[in-house]
TrEMBL record:
PANTHER family: D-GLYCERO-BETA-D-MANNO-HEPTOSE-1,7-BISPHOSPHATE 7-PHOSPHATASE. One of its GO terms (cellular component) is cytoplasm. Residues 12-137 form the Glycosyltransferase 2-like domain. It comes from Saccharomonospora cyanea NA-134. One of its GO terms (molecular function) is phosphatase activity. Its main location: cytoplasm. It is found in: Cytoplasm. Keywords: Carbohydrate metabolism, Cytoplasm, Hydrolase, Metal-binding. This is D,D-heptose 1,7-bisphosphate phosphatase. InterPro entries: Glyco_trans_2-like (IPR001173), HAD-like_sf (IPR036412), HAD-SF_hydro_IIIA (IPR006549), HAD_sf (IPR023214), Heptose_bisP_phosphatase (IPR004446), Histidinol-phos (IPR006543), Nucleotide-diphossugar_trans (IPR029044). Gene3D superfamilies: HAD superfamily/HAD-like, Spore Coat Polysaccharide Biosynthesis Protein SpsA, Chain A. Belongs to the GmhB family.
């Protein structure tokens, strides 16, 4: 049975920012809120390191505020910096362009109190105030769509344990788009639930320029990563509509064909293609103009951008698919590879990183390569390790060496006949699937022959880093079919070359 906690838990607020003017208003709202105040507010300065200018300074507001820097790597990376620096069980993520109600702290406390232990997160309701004297513009309708998003991190509180287990936000999502849905899908697949809260947060309407809707098409590249990680039906699972990419492809093909046929002096075929392009573009523009204010400026904007959006959307999607195909990952065995081997390790205080582990992981992360863990843990099946102790050890490994984008462990014994215990390949295959990476572009780093065999059976590549317990036959196997490295940093450099 899941346990419930009837006292409001302590929480930390994490706010990634690119220096928006609204940030101070948000902090003032939190400072004057009713209810238990956060243990700390972590403001993550995500301005690019070379262009940030002066350090971010904030007025004294009576809140325990700390400013950290994330180097302009995007909101996913900024949130990871924030939650990993937080000390509380719960981390409440807020975007720097929202405003909280006066009762936000008390409602958050109510939302988090009494949650079962298998609840990973509590999501707020988003309110977008629109003028009631006219129809909303295209930018305003885009903001209004946030009210229908299921797991928007404009205001969402996550349990630290769940973030550790799934590796936090995927930093391959470079903008504030899809990174929140991706995290929620991974959390749910790991067996957690997400609760709807009672708190309401205001998101003012966006004000974009003439080509704002064209710039938003960059999100099609992120959709390619979502498809790779969550399958072709990810939109349905995330509560999304079907999207317009298919129509955009048809419109773009019609336009390109019309130009090519004109150049080839095939006027009749070119006219048919141009007619199809005109019809599809007109339908798209009409669909966008109809719900709006229909002012001359808005109509002109919709007409022009409706012609530009299809090819731009297709170009971004192709670029995203190319990046996915070129994606790579490195998976590590845990015991005697990342940390010193302690038989049936159940005490977090006994976790000791292996020499060179931190340097190897830093090298891979600096290159933008996702890293994960694949580990046999027969102590769970034998009763030598409890699930709680295993989670505590995992948290400690994450504190010392994380974050890891995927954790895969086999809880079975050697005689259980499971498909996941190394040298069987299931853990490697699951890790590659979870990361959205072709298993052939994964490298498994381990210290014994079963690590090498699991990688090769799965179709991945393998690097053996021998230790005192590595058998000579295992080294010979690796020399014939994989790679042998003298230490972890060398293994990381080889892994970058292999992938």
């Amino acid at each position: 049975m899941n346990r419930r906690r009837d006292r409001a838990p302590a929480y930390t607020v994490v706010i990634p920012t690119a220096g928006r003017d609204n940030l101070v208003s948000l902090l003032r709202g939190l400072a004057h809120g009713e209810g238990p105040e956060p243990s700390e507010v972590l403001v993550i300065d995500d301005r690019p390191a070379g262009r940030a200018g002066t350090p971010l300074t904030l007025p004294e507001l009576g809140l325990p505020v700390r400013v950290l820097a994330s180097g302009g790597r995007g909101p996913a990376a900024a949130r990871n910096v924030g939650w990993r620096a937080a000390r509380d069980e719960w981390i409440a993520f807020l975007d720097d362009d929202v405003l909280t109600a006066r009762d936000w702290p008390s409602r958050l406390a109510t939302d988090l109190t009494g949650l079962d232990d298998d609840v990973a997160a509590s999501v707020a309701r988003i309110d977008v105030p629109l003028p009631d004297t006219r129809r909303p513009t295209d930018d305003e309708r885009d903001t209004l769509a946030l009210t229908r998003s299921r797991w928007i991190t404009a205001d969402m509180a996550y349990r630290r344990q769940a973030l550790v287990e799934v590796g936090g936000f995927d930093e391959r999502f470079p903008r504030a788009y899809r990174e929140d849905a991706d995290l929620a899908l991974r959390v749910r697949r790991a067996g957690w639930r997400i609760a709807e809260g009672s708190r309401v947060t205001t998101h003012p309407p966006k004000r974009g320029g003439f080509l704002a809707s064209v710039r938003r098409q960059r999100g099609n590249a992120d959709n390619a990563l979502m498809r790779a990680k969550h399958g072709a039906h990810w939109r349905h699972e995330a509560g999304e509509g079907p999207g317009r990419l298919g129509r955009h492809v048809l419109t773009t093909l019609a336009g390109v064909s019309a130009l090519a046929l004109t150049a080839a002096r095939s006027p009749r075929a070119a006219a048919l293609a141009a007619g199809l392009w005109t019809g599809l573009t007109g339908e798209f523009a009409t669909r966008r103009i109809a719900p709006g204010p229909r002012t001359p400026g808005e109509v002109a904007r919709m007409a022009v951008t409706s012609a530009v959006i299809p090819p731009v959307a297709c170009a971004h999607r192709l670029a995203g698919e190319w990046r996915v195909r070129r994606g790579r990952a490195v998976l590590f065995d845990r015991d005697d590879t990342l940390i010193e081997d302690v038989p049936y390790l159940s005490d977090p205080e006994k976790v000791r990183p292996m020499a060179g582990a931190a340097d190897a992981l830093a090298l891979l992360r600096d290159a933008g390569v996702p890293v994960g863990v694949v580990s046999n843990q027969s102590g769970l099946a034998r009763g030598h390790i409890t699930a709680e102790a295993f989670r505590a050890v995992t948290h400690r490994v994450d504190e010392l060496l994380g974050p890891f984008q995927t954790w895969q462990h086999c809880p079975h014994g050697p005689d259980d006949g499971c498909p996941c215990r190394k040298p069987r390949p299931a853990m490697v295959l699951r890790a590659a699937e979870e990361l959205g990476v072709d298993v052939r572009r994964c490298v498994v780093v381990g210290d014994i022959g079963s690590d090498v065999e699991a990688a090769l059976t799965a179709g991945a590549q393998a690097i053996l880093v021998p230790t005192a317990r590595t058998l000579p036959d295992e080294v010979e196997l690796a020399r014939r079919h994989a790679v042998v490295a003298p230490d972890l940093p060398t293994a990381a450099r080889i892994a970058l070359e292999l992938t």
